[in-house]
Design brief:
Distance between the termini: 69 Å
Shape: elongated
CATH class of the largest domain: Alpha Beta
CATH architecture of the largest domain: Alpha-Beta Barrel
Helix content: 25-40%
Largest sheet: 8 strands, parallel
Structural class: alpha/beta
CATH superfamily of the largest domain: Aldolase class I
Length: 359
């Protein structure tokens, strides 16, 4: 597959430019960690805003629109003991964690008041219709929905940017999804590399794929993270990720399927700061002396110093020269050039040597 542009190199979400050369757009993923408690949902919004994240994101779905009642339970739900009982089905789990749709106006208004973008992932066309009424600035397409081309096209027809996660997807899957989005009129599309495991072990992340996706599809690429800690997020930004999405919770001790691998409030704030520090530290590809290094550049590097008192008319030998700090004397690399020169003046012991002192 040859590289082809599927959209703009820089997109705009909520007035923020997202793409190479712009600050990483950080999405705090509240997901289902509201536990169907509106007070908790609003506290999550406040935590996201206080952390410095750019957006808070929920998930808008219904059990009826998401799963067949006959769907077998994923193994990770059993391993993590996330089901209420041995007989609870994944359909029943989703039913008890789905967000009440009547909350959306309230959550969007609370987010606006907190100064943070409000997003939610739609998992069915009716969810797109609902989210249009509250004015979300973009649509996140979950990794699970990368093959749900009708949903991708339905969201694309709103004219809003699409942020498409790529967990479990091949390049062919992604290409089909991008073709579908383009056919529906989308020209602001970003991809999000992802490993769909909860939590995701580091050895399956393949973060270099962030660069592969950017090269292959010529759109902004971010990273949707399901690891614990901050390491993968920092590395992703260093590799060029334009967005980071991360699950968070008020407490990992809370009951629910996504709390256990989510960041707690202080950790979310630390992650945002680590991302900003990473961006600042990447800096420029130009190797140069920075203004902040100027003082030590003069005082802590070495140059040539008189190893003993040197009388005027003396011919300089190796025994007359020492290599010491500071660095603003004759450079060390000119030592051979100085040998054999004649002192034009009396030079004191330990004097910093300068060319006008010699003939």
């Amino acid at each position: 597959m040859s590289a082809r542009s599927y959209g703009r190199p820089v997109i705009e979400v909520g007035g923020r430019q997202i793409g190479p050369g712009h600050p990483c757009y950080v999405i705090a993923e509240a997901g289902a960690n509201h536990n169907r408690d509106l007070k908790i949902a609003k506290e999550l919004i406040d935590v996201a805003a206080e952390s410095g994240a750019d957006a808070v994101k929920f998930q808008t779905y219904t059990a009826e629109g998401l799963y067949s009642r006959k769907t077998p339970n994923p193994s990770y739900l059993k391993k993590k003991e996330l089901l209420k009982s041995d007989t609870e089905t994944v359909w029943e789990l989703i039913k008890r964690v789905e967000i009440p749709w009547e909350w959306h106006d309230d959550l969007a208004a609370h987010s606006k008041a907190a100064g943070i973008d409000f997003l939610s992932t739609p998992f069915e066309e009716a969810a797109v219709d609902l989210l249009e009424t509250v004015g979300v600035p973009a649509y996140k397409i979950a990794s699970y929905e990368i093959t749900h081309l009708p949903l991708i096209q339905y969201a694309a027809r709103t004219g809003k940017p699409l942020l498409m996660s790529t967990g479990m997807a091949s390049l062919a899957d992604i290409e089909r999804a991008l073709d579908a989005a383009n056919a529906a009129g989308a020209d602001q599309i970003a991809l999000m590399h992802c490993a769909s495991s909860y939590p995701a072990p580091f050895d399956i992340l393949n973060l270099r794929a962030i660069q592969t996706l950017a090269q292959a599809f010529q759109v902004p690429v971010g990273y949707s993270d399901h690891t614990t800690g901050l390491t993968a997020d920092v590395v992703s930004v260093a590799l060029g990720a334009c967005m980071i999405e991360k699950h968070y919770t008020l407490s990992r001790g809370m009951e629910g399927p996504d709390h256990g691998f989510a960041l707690e409030p202080g950790e979310l704030k630390d992650m945002v700061q680590a991302i900003r520090d990473t961006e600042a530290s990447l800096g420029s590809p130009i190797k140069r002396v920075t203004p902040e290094e100027g003082d030590l550049y003069r005082l802590a590097r070495r140059s040539l110093v008189a190893a003993r008192a040197i009388p005027a008319g003396h011919k300089i030998t190796e025994d007359d020269i020492a290599i010491k700090r500071p660095g603003y004397g004759i450079p060390v690399y000119d030592r051979e050039t100085l040998l054999g020169r004649v002192a034009a003046i009396d030079i004191e012991d330990d004097e910093i040597l300068q060319w006008p002192m010699f003939q």
